[in-house]
Structure formats: structure tokens, C-alpha cells
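Exercise 7. Predict the structure of Alpha/beta hydrolase from Limosilactobacillus walteri.
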Amino acid sequence: MTIHELANNPTLDEQVRLIENVTYAAMDGEALHMSILAPWTQRFPQQYQTTPRPLIVFVQGSSWRTPTLGEEIPQLVQFVHAGYIVATVQHRSSIDGHPFPAFLQDVKTAIRFLRANAKKYAINPHQVAIWGTSSGANAAMLVGLTGNDPRYKVDLYQDQSDAVDAVVSCFAPMDVANTFEYDANVPGNKLLQYCLLGSDASKWTEIERQMSPLYQVKDGQNYPPFLLFHGDADKVVPYEQMERMYMRLKDNGNKVEAYRVKGANHERDFWSPTIYNTVQKFLDDQFK
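Solution. The predicted structure, encoded as C-alpha cells:
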């Protein structure tokens, strides 16, 4: 009989913990959740000391409905191996009676919750990035451009900041009105406009501008570094919006990098190891 021998792992190296369904707020009687990816040592604070890590707040695209928390978790694990804490967050759904700015208020509340609980989750509260896809990237861009804006701050965790130190955007609607025009023939397009922008169509133009990162850049204002990606075959959000956003930020003197993903549609064939590696390098440059 041959019994092989392996060494144990007393420091729990490379082990990742998934903390599911963390309730970070209740808005309009509705519980809001996030899932957190942390080193396994975070589970045993009496035995292990986990050095605080930079935080990535991830917002999955959902057409401004409630995001699916687990969509990107298999890929986000690699960022924990690279030295980050990752929180993927939900927000209220526009089609369930929560128009703008509900989703933005919720994401900002999640950031403040995480800062308030930084010690518990081994987070460095001074190194916070936000990363979103599609409508989640729209939220991420708005978070980056409206740090601590009182228009979007609710009563929860008011002693904490919702400003971020870096922004990653994947195929974001940068011009909301233009996006709805681009998708005019998509079933449900008009219903989503009513749910997201409200029943008074006379107010849509102003609300769409408030929701459009392209029109929220203030001349001469400093913003965190931005990393932008967009597929040039995107059939949901026009690729040209990213180019316009890139030039707006660059002309304003802000730090921004942009990548065109050749031949990529919305989600689907957009993703690759190169995307994730580029995101990690960008964040490492900011935080390490």
C-alpha cells in the first residue's frame, strides 16, 4: 500500500471565501444584497490577521434591473488571488417602480457600507475602485463623477464617503438618450424608458442628461483615473460613445485609458483573459 504525502496549508494561501447575500441596506422595504470575495483567512479573525486590501466594487449589467450577483464571480476570484477584496452589489430594479436615481443611490450606499465595515472585511477604505458592465458601468461612471454628491446620498452610513479612487467601465451607456435611440426597435425599450425615467416624458431629456456620464464631466474638476472598454461591434450601446467619453475626459485633463475590443458585441465575445489582465494592471498601477 502506497500513501502519498502532501504538506498542509497553515497560512491558507490562495484560498478564497465567498460571503453570500450580505444585506447592506433596506430601501422602500426592500433588502439590498451584495456578495463579497475575500481571503479565507478573513473567516478566522481570531487566528489570522488579514492585511487590509484594496476593494473592487463590481456592478453587473442588468438594463437597470436587479443585477445577478453571481454572473462574474468565477472570473472575479482571480482578483482576490491578486490581492484585492471584491464586492459584487445589487441595486433596486427600475421596472419594479424604482426610477433614476435609485440605482445610483444604492451603489453609493453599498460603497459607504463597505467603508463602514472595512475592518470586518479586511478592506483598505482609502483604496476603492468601482467596476461595472453595461448599465452597471453607467452606474460606475456616475459614481466616479459624482463622489459625495448630496443629490444621491441617502441617510445610511452618512459618515462614510462614496467617492472612489479608480473606475473601470465595460461597454457603458455614456449618452443615455442616444442609447435609447440606438435600441428603438428592441422590444420593451419604451417600457424601460417609462420605468427608468418616470411617467412624465417632458422631464426625460433632463433626466437622461443626469444619467449620462458624458454630460456630467465638469470643466476643470479632478476625477479618479478611468479605464474604458467597448466592443466596436456592440449592438446595444454604440461604440462611438466610448470614444466621445474618452475625449471629454482627456480634454478635461483627467487620467483615462481606453480600449476598443475589435469585433466584440455587447457581453458575449467581449470577454477574454486579456480584458481581466488589463483591468488588474490598471488597478495595480493605482494601488500597489
